Amino acid sequence: MRELLEAVADGSISPAAAEAELNGYVTSEAGRFDAARQQRRGIPEAIFAEGKSAAQVVALAETALETTGRALLTRVDDEQATALRTALADSDPEAAIERRHSTVRVLAPTYEPPELDATVGIVTGGTVDEPVADEAEVVCLDAGATVDRVDDIGVASLARTLDQVDRFRAADVLIVAAGREGALPTVVAGLVDTPVIAVPVDSGYGYGGDGGAALAGMLQSCTVLSVVNIDAGFVAGAQAVLISRAIDRARR
Amino acid sequence: MRELLEAVADGSISPAAAEAELNGYVTSEAGRFDAARQQRRGIPEAIFAEGKSAAQVVALAETALETTGRALLTRVDDEQATALRTALADSDPEAAIERRHSTVRVLAPTYEPPELDATVGIVTGGTVDEPVADEAEVVCLDAGATVDRVDDIGVASLARTLDQVDRFRAADVLIVAAGREGALPTVVAGLVDTPVIAVPVDSGYGYGGDGGAALAGMLQSCTVLSVVNIDAGFVAGAQAVLISRAIDRARR
Amino acid sequence: MRELLEAVADGSISPAAAEAELNGYVTSEAGRFDAARQQRRGIPEAIFAEGKSAAQVVALAETALETTGRALLTRVDDEQATALRTALADSDPEAAIERRHSTVRVLAPTYEPPELDATVGIVTGGTVDEPVADEAEVVCLDAGATVDRVDDIGVASLARTLDQVDRFRAADVLIVAAGREGALPTVVAGLVDTPVIAVPVDSGYGYGGDGGAALAGMLQSCTVLSVVNIDAGFVAGAQAVLISRAIDRARR
Amino acid sequence: MRELLEAVADGSISPAAAEAELNGYVTSEAGRFDAARQQRRGIPEAIFAEGKSAAQVVALAETALETTGRALLTRVDDEQATALRTALADSDPEAAIERRHSTVRVLAPTYEPPELDATVGIVTGGTVDEPVADEAEVVCLDAGATVDRVDDIGVASLARTLDQVDRFRAADVLIVAAGREGALPTVVAGLVDTPVIAVPVDSGYGYGGDGGAALAGMLQSCTVLSVVNIDAGFVAGAQAVLISRAIDRARR
Amino acid sequence: MRELLEAVADGSISPAAAEAELNGYVTSEAGRFDAARQQRRGIPEAIFAEGKSAAQVVALAETALETTGRALLTRVDDEQATALRTALADSDPEAAIERRHSTVRVLAPTYEPPELDATVGIVTGGTVDEPVADEAEVVCLDAGATVDRVDDIGVASLARTLDQVDRFRAADVLIVAAGREGALPTVVAGLVDTPVIAVPVDSGYGYGGDGGAALAGMLQSCTVLSVVNIDAGFVAGAQAVLISRAIDRARR
Amino acid sequence: MRELLEAVADGSISPAAAEAELNGYVTSEAGRFDAARQQRRGIPEAIFAEGKSAAQVVALAETALETTGRALLTRVDDEQATALRTALADSDPEAAIERRHSTVRVLAPTYEPPELDATVGIVTGGTVDEPVADEAEVVCLDAGATVDRVDDIGVASLARTLDQVDRFRAADVLIVAAGREGALPTVVAGLVDTPVIAVPVDSGYGYGGDGGAALAGMLQSCTVLSVVNIDAGFVAGAQAVLISRAIDRARR
Amino acid sequence: MRELLEAVADGSISPAAAEAELNGYVTSEAGRFDAARQQRRGIPEAIFAEGKSAAQVVALAETALETTGRALLTRVDDEQATALRTALADSDPEAAIERRHSTVRVLAPTYEPPELDATVGIVTGGTVDEPVADEAEVVCLDAGATVDRVDDIGVASLARTLDQVDRFRAADVLIVAAGREGALPTVVAGLVDTPVIAVPVDSGYGYGGDGGAALAGMLQSCTVLSVVNIDAGFVAGAQAVLISRAIDRARR
Amino acid sequence: MRELLEAVADGSISPAAAEAELNGYVTSEAGRFDAARQQRRGIPEAIFAEGKSAAQVVALAETALETTGRALLTRVDDEQATALRTALADSDPEAAIERRHSTVRVLAPTYEPPELDATVGIVTGGTVDEPVADEAEVVCLDAGATVDRVDDIGVASLARTLDQVDRFRAADVLIVAAGREGALPTVVAGLVDTPVIAVPVDSGYGYGGDGGAALAGMLQSCTVLSVVNIDAGFVAGAQAVLISRAIDRARR
Questions:
Q1: Where do the PurE domain residues begin and end (chains A, B, C, D, E, F, G, H) (predicted)?
Q2: Which residue intervals of chain E bear CATH 3.40.50.1970?
Q3: Do chains C and H touch (3 or more CB pairs under 8 A)?
């Protein structure tokens, strides 16, 4: 610890990074960032931007960048994204910013991405499911997994689904996102012997709308699925990463 | 009317049948029976046995038999069925009794069944759906329709479903009953250009159990379905009869 | 297929139309359009505009127009409608645009509408039900059916309802839309021997508001109804079309 | 008070009756009985038998009988009714016991019933509604009102309802009980200028069953109704009594 | 009828008024107005402004004014109220406009208000209940009843409630509006022998917010209440009018 | 620890008691008993008997008795109580068994009860609330608190409530249990400056029955309450004990 | 009282303060303010600003300030806060205004804060819980209690929680606020023998969002907790004050 | 196929086994058994006994045994288990029957169990969770996985949980079952980098009882979990098997 404090003293490590090393978390004005989560839990803490001010989002992203080499943000709106871009242009102009719908990843120039020998298949039923699937995809890519994305495969015209069975079977783990009646994960899982993580999507209207019918249908599925909450793309992606990493370790 | 009353007086018509002819309904101790429903609405009044005493069920069945030539009963339990059998052995020994799970039909020996030139396809997902489908089937058969029954076609092994597409397409109208996540009507409807009536079935457990997920999923279906309440096999069958009769009239 | 590709090569058919012919669906930037649904399912894929950007709506409408001769759009808001008008003025100035509340239909000048020998009665309880009934009406008209529309027939003054019984009886199939307590479909169905499709409408307030009481009441109806989800005018209309077409085929 | 205590001392009044006179309530082993409710609230405290032991029901009934001249009991099952009959044969052999389904009234031989110059119309949709309507009827009769009971008037065959309009209009206040979709109070209220109290009844099945659809529909009624809880026949009857008594007072 | 048509012809009666006399309802561009409701049901049709355009509200109000001498509007927002004021300044400058929160009444200069010999007590728990109570009050005043309004009597400080018992007892019928836990109608009803109509108000937050706890509590009340839907001030007022009119008739 | 093991060896302490001392919990065939909870959390682990076999209940009770000197059991049915009595007659004939409705306490002859200088007021609305209040009372008595119990104080006749204000004010902490609309805790709390713990009770019927209206009303109370789950008499009692002990410590 | 009126007459006391002294409440244009609540209930009436106009908020705050020496406001938005600041600059320029998120306290210069010898620990799970905890904290500080605030202690990294056990144990009463799955109060309460008041916070998304999962989890806690409604920081704080005051009284 | 039919002809293979080989499913009187599911989906079809007659359960179990070498049954009650034992004593006396609470496995003497190089940790919060965990365990053992079972680790005494971290970390995949507030999976998952499958258990009472709070809490978890339906031990076990098999394949 003496060593660490000396490194802080001579400026070779920032106070935030030192706090992260010592405590596992870093205190910023916008709250604590759990920098050690990656190591303890195997997945980084993502910054859930919804309901936070742009300033809070920027502060947390900069802390994440400083202590873990990159920041992962979900449910980012346009105002928050612009604020982030502006702030980083100033504080860290070399950082790379990637945006997929409402999911944003920021990479320090020195960040060395991990590698993971596993393929996650990500399947959606329709256009409305894509932002949710993007959340999942970014987490998987961040962890170094290969992603095979198959979009717009609704059960209303089954031929579109059956066409893709070979790709479903080639994946190590599948994430299937669907709204409305949410039947797609059941149909896909019935065709493969791969673990399937089902993600209900907030779509539909009237009774069972807002993802409620999809969630209930996935929990009642007559095949084997495990399920995450409505629109929880990040959680599905992170669970796929944990499974992929176990497979990757076994492959080495 | 004078004629009718004279027929009552000389015993050639029972008071109940006369009341039915005059009022459209018959008053028994167990309540009124809407004998004119068949003519007005195109389908007979069925006797919903659940929650009625065996004596009430017998009284209503005998009234129906006397005024419309047959009685249709749903949700009949063993005690009620036995009471009915015993009572009819006495009052109407020539009446024929048919039972399918909890659905019972009693036919007067003189009853002349109608004919209907139309085929109703009735499809179920699993064993648990069969009593509900039986309710529907008995109503369709009672109306003279041809029924093509396809059981045990769950979406968990899709091949079983796809095998039967030709039979689905041959029907004039389809009734599809399913519990758990209730995806079967959506999958079937996506394969045909026939009207599909979806029946959610009270099965499953936990969240969305008791038919709730199935109902929500059918109402949210991304294809075209109309839906009846959970376990409402009679309603689905009667709606199929109304459609079949319109087709039958057009065919003549 | 060679022929088709040559037609693409010489420009007599667009790549989108060729893809539709080959695959059944067409890929645009706004997602896939299921061009073959009309043929397979008997009804066209409608574009559900709610939650889509104006650009996505335009792209899907143009794809539909190109591959099926017309586009059917539901839940279109003013901004989307204006964007569509502007885009079509440019890309397809001869296309005809029809708008009924939030339902829009675009017709290519060469489009030849089908004919259907059947009448759909569409009945509403009050002013608030009309946009939902319009969705149903546009689908029926698009399919070539005759529509008999009876508006503003609430059960609070029953005389208004009873006045119209002859028109109800003259229809081949009835769609009845109602909000609040949703009793109208039950009252109408009790008077006719026609199949009735009930549409609960999102109206009312407090307990059972937003169409919830109407949906529950229709599913509990003591007469025979089949039901679609709250505000699902399109689904009701499409189901009426499937029934009408079966009647029409039988009439020929 | 001295007088009262002397009356207790010489046995011309029981201790319970004296306690009732002094405190308004009487303490028995089965809890307190609110003997003064009649005077304060205008309606007697009824004994809700459901969930009480037969012994508790008997004790409370005897207390009511002793202090108010009669006992009114709701939701009485066969075992409780038998226990009551047995106990009274012993303790008060001249008391008269009236039973209507699960509602029971016991009258002391000296009880002088009140008179009320008002008519309560009580209307039901079907057989299943009758025990609930009986609760209401017994309360109204107990208060001395005239009751005009019209049973089995479901909206599925509207003619049965319309036939009775003159009787509906002749009542000073109407109670309308209905289960399933609960449309009857709305239809009746639309025909009269009388206050209507709607009682949803626990019937039906699946979504909106157990009286839920009926309650929601009555609260959403597009005409003017006030509503009591599901199966709350006693409350509806008591409210009708309060209205009738106001009318009766005005008539005098 | 000949007479009526001649009156239309010579302009002494408007076509709308004539249609109202003949049909009971008047057709305007904004839908039908049930002009005969007052006569048939004893209360006028109120115009529910929420969700209607300002133009529709104006059209319906003018129709009501023309055919029944005044217009009663509920849930009117500022924009609708301004539009109404502007339109009437032009079409009917002598009409008097009264506004209480979101309730508006417009009176033709020739309108002769009815008289009703009955007092309605209207009680509220807090500031938030007042707009709902205003709806009720305006209906009662419109019918000619005397209104005794007691505001801001919450159960959290019971002394405020108990102070007013004499006024509660002096009323012929009581309307009690309360939000949050909705205990006020129970407390008030326990103190009087008057019929009490309870109105749950949309207030509170979290579990049971939006009037849900108040509605449930009023339906579960251990005293005698009848209940209307959340925020249904108009319905409560109209029911009080029907009761008041019965009392008034009895008093004459 | 050596000492402890020697005590086990020479039989002066049982293995269970030794395990409890070492681990804090004891393993029996019926699961672990958290013997250290008393010390850590300030309240003993109660044995929730519902859903357990009589044998499991006996095993856990004997373990509790052996390691903490007494056993506290809630939701005990007759069969379980009899089994317990029989078993203890054999294993520990000197143990004292106390039963209040479904709550049972068993005391070892050597058990020395604690003393607590604080009074808990326990108030109920009606007979149905008493078993729940008994659960609370037994926990308070077990901890040595003084209990002042006030039963049968419903808000339907407010005088019964107001009579008792002095007793409410004399308590250090109040537990108020009520079912139906659950208004009693609000009324009581409005009269005192004591902390009030509200317990909703599973009573009532129809909408808001089973304690739902009471729970919602207590959470929405316009005065200050904290709330426990429906029928959670034990939790309310234990919370009152924790507060009483803090007061007791401050008094010393 | 004569004295009081003379004080009003000579201006040494305001009419509002006199009304407060006489009646316990003060009538302003924005409703009544319960000035005596502090004395009767031990906690001041807070002004719930949500849904009130800025003018109403100002009027109530000024009344509170005048009659109780300070005003406590919850759920204040920016517009209301600004209006308050502006109004007070004019009417009471020496008043001190404190704001914590949406909670505001205004202090008259002459106000003498009470002292309370007790410590309330306030614990939050994350950033989103802080405004709710602030409500609680302001009430506790207003009552003179010592507050020990521990923020950002989520159960996802348990080490952060376990680190703080000594501070938890040092408090006399604990308030624990948490959203999402709401496990924090259970985890904290398992570690201490202090009364814990749990506050569910409106956070999360999808099923169980808006505080619903947190509320349910806290009511189901397998340890001892009492609970307030979602986001009810004020109620939790006030309950902690009532407990603290009892402890404080015992300490004196 | 010729070969297969000859094998049937000479009796070396049963007709059921031949049908299974050809169709993938076998038809018995109790419905179809999906014998090919093991191969297609990687897990056998389990027989869900709840709601089936003993005869149906026996028939399906015998079919499973004959075609896949063993039968896996869940939710078996005593009557069904006895019937199975009796039937097998006759038809297949050498079959081994294993029972864990309501889960039963029957093994043909010739059955050769698979081997799987992976460890599934199964963790429960309390006694009530054990039957659900047993379902999961039997599926894992059937697939050849190693199971490490840790029972009775509730969060109310956290030390019991923290003690077991090393065992949690040693597993390849974790199943965590908990009822009441369902916090255990979140606490466990926060300590490991292993995939965790959370199983809510039907326990608790009042609001959020029957597993509802646990399900909501697990879906809202602030760490990474995937979830199955309430009491769905079989599904959790089967998902763990699919993950384990992927790891096992990678290890080879």
A1: 118-249
A2: 119-251
A3: no
G33 burial (CB, 10 Å; 0-12 / 13-18 / 19+) is buried
Backbone torsions φ then ψ of A117, nearest 5 degrees: -90, 75
In angstroms, what separates the C-alpha of G223 from chain H's closest C-alpha?
6
| Alpha carbons C2 and C17: distance in angstroms, whole number | 15
Alpha-carbon gap, residue A156 to A162, rounded angstroms: 12
Which of E193, E242, E251 lies at the smallest CB-CB distance from D242?
E193
Tell me the chain E residues in contact with residue C126 when contact means C-beta distances shorter than 8 Å: 31
Domain D119-251 has CATH 3.40.50.1820: no
How far off is chain H from A228, nearest CA to CA, in Å?
Answer: 5
The rounded distance, in Å, linking the Cα atoms of C58 and F218 is 52
Q: Which residues of chain A have a CB within 8 Å of the CB of G208?
A: 229
- One-letter identity of residue H162: L
CB of H212 within 8 Å of any CB in chain B? yes
Do A205 and C135 form a contact (C-beta atoms < 8 A)? no
Among the residue ranges E8-22, E138-152, H38-52, the one predicted with the least confidence is: E8-22
CA G52 to chain centre: 18
Indicate the pLDDT class of residue C172, thresholds 50, 70 and 90.
very high
Q: Do B226 and C197 touch (CB under 8 A)?
A: yes
Residues in chain B closer than 8 A to C43 (CB atoms): 193, 224
* Token pair listed for A145: 């997994």
CB pair distance less than 8 Å for H32 and B206:
no
Query: Which pTM value belongs to this model?
Result: 0.92
Distances (CA, A) of C189 to A117, C161, D180, F70: 62, 12, 16, 67
User: Measured between CB atoms, does G163 come within 8 Å of chain A?
Assistant: no
Nearest to E106 by CA among E54, E53, E143, E142: E142
E152 to chain G, any CB pair closer than 8 A? The answer is yes
State yes or no: pLDDT of E31 exceeds 90.
no
Least confident interval from B158-162, G208-212, H33-37: H33-37
Q: pLDDT by residue (tens digit) across D10-68?
A: 777 777 666 666 666 666 666 667 766 776 777 888 899 998 889 999 999 998 898 88
What value does the mean pLDDT take over residues F4-28? 69
**Chain C CB within 8 Å of residue B216 CB:** no
Shortest CB distance from B227 goes to which of C42, C172, C228?
Answer: C228
Contact G95, G108 (CB under 8 A): yes
Rounded distance between C-alpha atoms, residue A11 and residue E251, angstroms: 95
User: Which chain C residues are closer than 8 Å to D219 by Cβ?
Assistant: 206-208, 213
Residue with tokens 């959403």: D220
Neighbours of G197 (CB within 10 A): 30
Partner-chain residue, chosen from A190, A208, A219, that has the shortest CB–CB distance to B220: A208
- Angle of helix D15-23 relative to helix D54-68, nearest 10 degrees, comes to 70
Q: How does the average pLDDT of chain B come out, rounded?
A: 89
Write down the pLDDT at residue A89.
93
The answer to whether A216 faces chain H, any CB pair under 8 Å, is no
User: Is the pLDDT score of G141 beyond 90?
Assistant: yes
> DSSP per residue over C23-71, as a string?
HS-EEETTEEE-TTHHHHHSSPPPEE-TTS-HHHHHHHHHHHHHHHSEE
State how far the Cα of B45 lies from the Cα of B47, in Å rounded to an integer: 7
Q: How many CB pairs under 8 A join F and G?
A: 102
C-beta of residue G16 within 8 angstroms of C-beta of residue G22: no
Contacts of B227 in chain C (CB under 8 A): 219, 226-228
Which among C24, C50, C215 is the nearest to A207, CB-wise? Answer: C215
Average pLDDT on G184-189 reads 95
Confidence of residue D117 (pLDDT cuts 50, 70, 90): very high
Q: Do chain B and F touch: 3 or more Cβ pairs under 8 angstroms?
A: no
